Amino acid sequence: MSVHVKEVSRGQDSQVLPKVPVPPLKQTLDTYLKCIQPLVKDDQFKKTKAIVEKFGSPGGVGEVLQRKLLERREKTANWVYDYWLEDMYLNNRLALPVNSSPAMVFPKQTFRDQKDALRFAAHLIQGVLEYKALTDARVLPVDFARGQLAGTPLCMEQYYRLFTSYRYPRLKTDMLKVHMDAASLEPEHIIVVCKNQFFSLEVVVNNKQLNEAEILSQLEKIVKMSENAEQRHPPFGLLTSDGRTEWAQAREVVIKDKTNKDSLALIESCVCVVCLDEPCGLPPSDTNRALMMLHGGGHEKNGANRWYDKSMQFVIGMDGVCGVVCEHSPFEGIVMVQCSEFLMKHIKGSPSKMVKPSSSRELHPPKRLLWKSNSHIQGLLAASGDRLQRLVNNLDMDVFVFETYGKEFIKGQKMSPDAFIQVVLQLAFYKCKGRLVSTYESASLRRFQEGRVDNIRSATPEALAFVQTMADERAAFTDSEKFKRLRDATNAQTDYTIAAITGMGIDNHLLGLLKISKELNMEKPEIFCDETYLASNHFILSTSQVPTTLEMFCCYGPVVSNGYGVCYNPQSDYIIFCVSSFWENTETSSAVFVKALNEGLLEIKDLCNRSGVAATKPVNSRQPAGRPHKSGK
Ligand code: COA
């Protein structure tokens, strides 16, 4: 592990999965050229092609770096892990809310009163403790891949970081600390935030875990204590919503005081954060609930009732707006979904285990975290609050449920639903802007040891050829030509997907070559200074499939100021799209994108129906690779 990622102690043996491969150099360079060709002008492409060819020439810089990467692969469990983690998360200076932390939005809950909401919170905390016991004991059933190349076992390491991780702000590169021996940490506590006040709720007292009635009674005490205006402390949680460098600087000021340092230490060692939110005052539409999870509505609402460095923050709004916000660096959205679904099943399926009050212990009230402030710190808090408000005002979110069809219709066309949706996203963007842009789709690498993700570059030449025919107003193309191009585009997308999930993606490889050149103190190779490389890493479309089996959905913000974040959740007969962008950018609009997406989805359906292939065409070679295996949970 690098200096920025500290694993305090290794967990039990991880499964023996293959190591992520290092793709052949020539293959990556050829794919790179193919990927960027539809995105840059001809003269720029020629220039880049010459640079790439020089880099990959026999005896060239590329060969030297490739050899070093292969050596690194031998020496490490996962050669790209640290490079990727720093590049994707720890070096990123943007604020965590909206820019980095994804959220799961739970179905709107109906609470009769505050007690009902706290009962829900107690039940959820009980579920968290049960799930944590499974991860601590490493007894979660192993997940198996579904969809493309179904059936292979997947790496489970990400689950073990759910409740054991903390991201420390640093001036240049944050530090992710993972306690792999969390089970031995005593006593365990959860941080509960209520009215911007922090409380440490010990969940193990005298070696015995609190039962649900005891948790509820502790939560009631917390609510009561938070109401005492005289004892109220400034909203320190705001600092964690700031840019990472700003928060790192503020933290240095804050920890000068021992009281603050102690409070921070308690937060940094907790199992998770539970945010008891005030009613947000907005209609609980999908979009508003997504916004509340992503940023809490700013200081005026629940924006300070958070601690963004902690990996799992459960939000329970007294108005029934609930969900989870995650610090993304320790794990992917898929793991967050599995945990959330376990908790929802726990809440719905297992009746609340409220034991009789007589069998509950009389416990000391939870400890309120104390903070010492001064005018300097007050100024820092105000500045963080202002910057959060700007982020809140800037986020343009549109949750769109497309109800005309879902995965089953697409499968009926003998196409991969994921590839199909990616092609539709390309069409939607093309409808808005008349061009394609560098696109990111996350591809899981969990088939490999400590695997995280690589990128499927969905703006393929085949997608461009298809969207051009669809947008051709002279109607010069026949349906059969359009349909052929649709199939070519989905096939190209599926091929790229299979390459990426088997470790043959190009983004991680190119990043590895760049990083290793730095380690060797070499001059930055020209290929990485080229404006094409920079543009190809500016992901105007940042997309991800995060499917759920229960009624809930994932959402996140754009990754660049002029971009869109599109998280989608394909179901059998409908698809949820969470489209985000920034109001401050006049080039983007989530509503305009959603309109184009809806049109594109309907136009392609009509095209498929007119082409009538489902009934007539033989089964395509890219049908599912086998009967999908059920995921472990
Ligand atoms: N004809 C008919 N059916 C097909 C088909 C075809 N040509 N191709 C695929 N299908 C079926 C699959 O068998 C599968 O069936 P199931 O629903 O019964 O399991 C279904 O369609 C879905 O497959 P597909 O749409 O191809 O996608 P996938 O499930 O393989 O997912 C990725 C593709 C890239 C999304 C996935 O590999 C991945 O990496 N997911 C992780 C993404 C991630 O990490 N997100 C979180 C980021 S924070």
UniProtKB/TrEMBL annotation:
Residues 20-599 form the Choline/carnitine acyltransferase domain. This is Choline O-acetyltransferase. One of its GO terms (biological process) is neuromuscular synaptic transmission. The active site is at H328 (proton acceptor). Belongs to the carnitine/choline acetyltransferase family. It comes from Nothobranchius furzeri. Catalyzes the reversible synthesis of acetylcholine (ACh) from acetyl CoA and choline at cholinergic synapses. It comes from the Eukaryota. It catalyses: choline + acetyl-CoA = acetylcholine + CoA. It holds the Pfam family Carn_acyltransf. The keyword Zinc does not apply. Gene3D superfamilies: Chloramphenicol acetyltransferase-like domain (3.30.559.10), Choline/Carnitine o-acyltransferase, domain 2 (3.30.559.70).
